[in-house]
């Protein structure tokens, strides 16, 4: 069964960008989710979108920025790193393996979630 345990259709949260939507679609494709898990999945998706925005900002501005103390590392680099840690923790809590390099598919998600849920 797809979606929450009640069997009702799960719609993507409003405002997700492409990366977040891709993660959402992959996350709900094969699993039953409780409401609290859907909230965590939504937060992971929004976090994924923030990471993409931060990466784009660094790409546009460059790795280094001028400041009153001279050149310094772009602050979005540190924030993106923190957001990646948040997303990894959310996904691990849900039993979803890390994203691939392109931020896309989640290989073997079914078996990993089953292990985290206690099934083997």
Folded structure, characterized:
- 55% of the residues lie in helices and 10% in strands.
- It is mainly alpha-helical and 120 residues long.
- The chain has one domain (3-116).
- The strands form 2 sheets. It has a two-stranded parallel ribbon with strand order 1-2.
- The longest helix is centred in the middle third of the chain and has 27 residues, at 35-61.
- The chain is elongated, with a radius of gyration of 17 Å.
- Mean pLDDT is 82; it is low at 103-120.
**Alpha-beta content class:** mainly alpha
The total count of helices amounts to 4
Number of strands: 4
The unreliable regions are: 103-120
Shape field: elongated
Distance between the termini: 19 Å
How would you classify the quaternary structure?
single chain
Number of domains: 1
Write out the strand line-up for the largest beta sheet, numbering strands in chain order: 1-2
The percent range for strand residues is: 5-15%
Largest sheet: 2 strands, parallel
Helical percentage: 55-70%
Order of helices and strands: EHEHEEHH
What gyration radius follows from the Cα positions, in whole Å?
Answer: 17 Å
Instruction: Give the overall average pLDDT.
Output: 82
């Amino acid at each position: 069964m797809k979606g929450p345990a009640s069997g009702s259709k799960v719609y993507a949260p409003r405002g997700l960008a492409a990366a977040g939507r891709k993660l959402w679609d992959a996350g709900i494709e094969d699993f039953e989710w409780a409401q609290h898990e859907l909230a965590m999945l939504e937060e992971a998706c929004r976090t994924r979108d923030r990471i993409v925005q931060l990466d784009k900002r660094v790409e546009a501005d460059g790795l280094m920025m001028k400041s009153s103390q001279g050149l310094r590392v772009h602050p979005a680099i540190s924030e993106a790193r923190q957001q990646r840690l948040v997303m990894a923790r959310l996904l691990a809590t849900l039993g979803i393996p890390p994203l691939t390099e392109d931020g896309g598919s989640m290989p073997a998600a079914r078996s990993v979630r089953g292990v985290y849920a206690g099934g083997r």
